[in-house]
Specification:
360 residues, mainly alpha, MetI-like fold, 2 domains, globular, transmembrane helix, transmembrane, membrane
Length: 360
């Protein structure tokens, strides 16, 4: 009878060891990423806690009012934990923040967590629409400028990029409202929806486009899309400036590499070289700039939301700052900062995966 060859013990051990190393090669970067993310969040919590103690605003006095008695004021300090040592206060602050309890907003009288859950989806919706527009147009401008370096196309793309960097975003928003809303009547007014549709669509997800689409009311969906268009274009114009400029610079850098010279010598067209060879090589760089632009839109849409009366977290934060509403300020700051840290960490993870896939 023919005998079946069986793997030796050494081969089996080598196979197990190599599999273990592959698992560790994936786990170690993940653990390192989680540690970096947790450490950054801890630093963010420490900074926001320091803001509460360095601020001239007294939380206890805000809670009870200027005309409260001394005993009432002292009782409020005990209730807020302000009579405890600073390390104890910080640990209590971290514990409440991790549980999603940011306290009571003085401006709205509602829990800050509830206010953030109501306003943050509006900012995410606006920033997402803006980054999609900005990324598509910015990549197209950057590629066109690099492929036609020195021509009028390059000059026009660079002018748009420079204009996007230079123009104040609130001025551009006011100009767009004056032109397209007040004069031409092509766009609806400020806000997220007309009064007709504002109370007829039940807010389920907090995203106006999703809620109006799920409601089956075509008019409400079109109205939500029309209200989103103008502020999204303003933010997209600001985002595409950075994306187009970096795309152009990255492509021009790659055009000087040896592999491009070799491909040209073999008769490959510039279009083929750009899309088949260069774009995969700069994908990590482009992913980074797009993700950072998106994060900056999430945290920097304050002026746009104020100009367009967009009920997002930026406008909520502005109102809280004018009112001296420290729980709302700290809660919104912590959420926006955590979102920025999370996007940055996910971008690093995505770039590392792209690099690993390109090396295979």
């Amino acid at each position: 009878m023919p005998q079946t060859a069986t793997p030796s013990t050494a081969d089996t051990n080598d196979s197990r060891q190599s599999r273990r190393w592959r698992e560790l090669s994936f786990v170690r970067p993940l653990l390192k990423w989680l540690w970096s993310f947790a450490l950054t969040l801890f630093g963010l919590a420490l900074v926001t806690f320091a803001m509460t103690r360095l601020s001239p605003i007294d939380p206890a006095l805000q809670l009870v009012g200027d005309h409260a008695s001394q005993s009432t004021y002292e009782a409020a300090r005990v209730e807020l934990g302000l009579d405890q040592p600073l390390p104890v206060q910080f640990l209590r602050y971290v514990e409440t923040a991790l549980s999603g309890n940011f306290g009571q907003s003085i401006s709205t009288g509602q829990p800050v967590a509830k206010d953030i859950a109501r306003t943050f989806p509006a900012t995410i919706e606006l920033a997402t629409a803006a980054i999609i527009l900005g990324a598509v147009i910015g990549l197209a401008l950057g590629i066109a400028a690099a492929m036609r370096q020195g021509t009028w196309v390059d000059s026009a793309a660079r002018f748009v990029s420079l204009f996007g960097y230079s123009v104040p975003i609130f001025w551009l928003g006011l100009l767009m409202l004056l032109l397209f809303y007040a004069r031409l009547h092509w766009a609806p007014g400020p806000g997220r929806a007309d009064v007709v549709f504002q109370y007829t669509v039940k807010p389920i997800s907090g995203f106006a486009l999703i809620d109006t689409w799920m409601s089956g009311k075509t008019g409400a969906f079109r109205d939500a899309l029309a209200h989103l268009a103008l502020p999204a274009i303003v933010l997209a114009f600001h985002a595409l400036a950075a994306i187009s400029r970096l795309t152009r610079a990255a492509i021009l850098t790659e055009l000087g590499q040896e592999y491009v010279t070799t491909a040209r010598a073999k008769g490959a067209s510039l279009r083929r070289i750009t899309f088949i060879h260069i774009m995969p090589n700069i994908a990590g760089t482009l992913l980074t700039v797009i993700a950072l632009s998106y994060a900056s839109l999430l945290e920097g849409a304050v002026l746009t939301e104020t100009v367009f009366a967009w009920p997002g977290i930026g406008r909520y934060l502005t109102t809280a700052m004018f009112a001296g509403d420290m729980p709302a300020i700290l809660g919104a700051t912590l959420v926006v900062g955590a979102s920025f840290v999370l996007l940055n960490a996910l971008t690093d993870l995505g770039v590392s995966r792209l690099d690993a896939g390109r090396r295979r």
